Every structure is written in structure tokens, then in C-alpha cells.
Amino acid sequence: MIWKISKEFDFCYGHRVWSQQLDAEFSLSGCLACRHLHGHQGKIIIFLQSDKLENGMVTDFNHLNWFKLFLDATLDHKFIIDIHDPLFDTLLPHFKDKQNLITHESGYQTPDLSFIKDEPSHIFEMYEGYIIVDFVPTSENISTWLMEIIQKKMRKLNVEVSHVEFLETPKSRSIVYK
């Protein structure tokens, strides 16, 4: 037997899909709205599975509390930007040389705010809102990135992530399977 459980998490984020291309035959317009800076009320659903139960459970739902903390501290009300985005230099002019970035274990970077400590507070606040990744932040890529983070942590409990659903909007989702 295989048992599965799931838990949902919500967070707000912004992004820009600079690589968006549309075929007007299918999209009914050539509007490349996802190339604009925009935000979402995202939802991620994590599906865990195991072929054995520990204390009658795949794992305790509380074993995902760390992920809520990660979302709140890392992604909630932040702007996810691809380091290769052609607008990177425009949006992060103090970091256009792509130096003075702090690399985090979970596969993203943030501006080193000590580098701009003498800037006005509104500049500091702008830069503290950026999460820099090495991929175009589509829902498919974000769900893959988050699944890798979750899987790495849950392996310590011998629990597998079977798949992750990521809802960019209530009607648009991506699903990535292990």
C-alpha cells in the first residue's frame, strides 16, 4: 500500500515571465501580459507519500511547519526575478554587475543589503524584496524549485514528495511529479 497526504500553503509574490511568447491562433491575442511586472496570490499543495506508516501516519502535518516559515520569510510579498532577465540591470541597478549577491542554500540569491546601507530607506526596501533565481519564474519552474527544496528536507523523515501543485491563480495551475 501507498498512503498520501497533502497540505496547502498560500503566499503572495510577484514575478515577470520575460520569455513569454504567444501564438495568436491559440491565445486569441498577441498580448504578452506575463512579461509585465505583476503579482499573484499563489497556492502550493504538497503531496507526501509513504509505503509505511509511522505512528499511523505518513508524517505529522506539523512536520511541514518549516515550509510555512520558509514561504513567509523567503517568498511572501517578494518579487522573484531571473538573473538572466533582460530587465535585471534596470530593476536592480546597484547590482547590475551581479556581484554583492548572497547565495542561499535553497537555490536563490538576494542582494547583499550591507552594500547599499547608505542608500535612502526606500531604496533599501526595494532591494530587500527581490528573490533572484537562475530560471524564468514560470509556475512550472517555481513548482519544480519548491519541490526540490521540500524533497530534500522531507527525506530526513523518510517521506517522499509524490508531487506538487502550484496555483498561480485559482484557475491556473502547474503540477510537477517526482
What's the overall geometry? Answer: globular
Q: What's the N-to-C terminus distance?
A: 18 Å
**Main sheet: strand order:** 6-3-1-2-7-8
The name of the CATH superfamily reads: 6-pyruvoyl tetrahydropterin synthase/QueD
Radius of gyration: 18 Å
String of helices and strands? EHEHEHEEHEHEE
Q: With helices defined by DSSP (H or I, 4 residues minimum), what is the helix count?
A: 5
The main sheet comes to: 6 strands, mixed
Report strand %: 25-35%
According to DSSP, the number of beta strands is: 8
The figure for the number of domains is 1
Query: Overall mean pLDDT score?
Result: 95
* Estimated helix fraction: 10-25%
Low-confidence segments: none
List keywords for this structure.
single chain; 178 residues; alpha/beta; Tetrahydropterin Synthase, Chain A; 6-stranded mixed β-sheet; two-stranded antiparallel ribbon
Question: Briefly, what is this?
Answer:
By secondary structure, this protein is α/β, with parallel strands linked by helices.
Describe the structure.
This protein is of the alpha/beta class and about 180 residues long. The protein has a single domain, classed as 6-pyruvoyl tetrahydropterin synthase/QueD (Tetrahydropterin Synthase, Chain A), CATH 3.30.479.10. About 25% of the residues lie in helices and about 35% in strands. The protein contains five helices and eight strands. The strands form two sheets. A six-stranded mixed beta sheet has the order 6-3-1-2-7-8. The longest helix is centred in the last third of the chain and has 16 residues, at about 140-155.
